[in-house]
Amino acid sequence: MQTRTDLIEDLMARFPKVPPEAVIKEDLLRGGVAFDDSALTDNEDGEVKPKSYFIFSFDHRTLPELGTAALRRPPEEIVLTGGPYQLRRTVVSVRVNPQSPYRVQADADGMLRLTLDGRPIADVGLPPMPEYYRHKLANGKSVMEVAPTIQWGYLIYLTVFRVCQYFGAKEECQYCDINHNWRQHKAAGRPYTGVKPVDEVLEAMEIIDRYDTTGASHAYTLTGGSVTSKVDGLGEADFYGRYAKAIEERFPGRWIGKVVAQALPREDVQRFYDYGIRIYHPNYEVWDKRLFELYCPGKERYVGRELWHERILESAEVFGARNVIPNFVAGVEMAAPHGFTDVGEAIDSTTEGLEYFMSRGITPRFTTWCPEPTTPLGKSNPNGAPLEYHIRLLESYQATMERNGLTSPPGYGPPGAGNAVFSVSSFMDCLPAQSDTTVA
Ligand code: SF4
């Protein structure tokens, strides 16, 4: 029987253009990792930066099923080096799965190692607790709750609206647990603010600015659920835009401002820009028409696929093509019951979407799908997509970028194996090394 070690070594051999670091990283992202108690954090009171649950749960079990990891949070990310594959520094977002064949545990020498099928395959580094997490807001809220940072401190992740107005089975994206994640944190008695007040966000940003002693933070993302009616009396562009306005007035140009939102009409997109946002993520989620309609019913209902794509192209006239970076969720193309069953067909479809945007100068990026257990697609596909799909996608992504003369998108930190900090997919690990690109 093929072990997981056999699987990754087979893929490393068959796809030499994809670095071995990315093969392991994709497998960890799609299938999760188990933690020995010795590798968990002391939450906000210890020396290791804990997992903030910055938007979705990104776990393979619900909180009550995580055992000790529900009480002592796992780290936000891990960094892998060395081992039999001589891994260069690889930052990986933590997705907990107690049943994973990957495990982080202390060796006999007390050093943390990543094991696969019981064999050590990498040294594990944990993110140090940033100084700014040790300071609270005046009202007692933590910086981790209001303005967590990810990507080894590069990105301040501002989920200012913790739920989505696409609600219920007929509207929620079928792989998304934002609404469930809100409920489970509330049920566990954790602080979890539904709509973050602008003042709190500003205060947390001030603390980060003051105590980011290593100068790691370079960008912020304003994000959360879709707004189909109003929040605080505001439509989507003004709701998310007001945070950027406040941040840019207080800290002009200190960080690159990004927003994840629906594909909005041009006048709303212009408002985002006027508020000071410089990168726009109108995420198209999955390329195939039938799968978009079935797996993103809210997006289909409120906007529709064709108009969504038209608006992505149109927004390039406002932001510049380089600064429109729509996300898709890599892997849901292969999710039962409606997804492709053949890896080659799924890759062909996804590549068609990449070519559509890249040939127009727009660089999509992707997040590796985590099949969270409370979502419809997580329930029917607990093991996610085949690893081969993820590896072939990386190869196709590299080739499509190269064919279209594009380089790594701005606002993601440095590209290249050993340099990348983007932690929720390996696309940055697979691009040629170059210095960080700034917003054009
Ligand atoms: S738009 Fe879809 S993916 Fe985004 S928060 Fe709403 S349900 Fe989730």
Automatic annotation (TrEMBL):
GO terms for molecular function: catalytic activity; iron-sulfur cluster binding; metal ion binding. Keywords: Iron, Iron-sulfur, Metal-binding, S-adenosyl-L-methionine. InterPro entries: Aldolase_TIM, rSAM, rSAM_sf. It comes from the Bacteria. The keyword Iron applies. The keyword Metal-binding applies. This is Radical SAM protein. It comes from Stackebrandtia endophytica. The lineage of its organism: Bacteria, Bacillati, Actinomycetota, Actinomycetes, Glycomycetales.
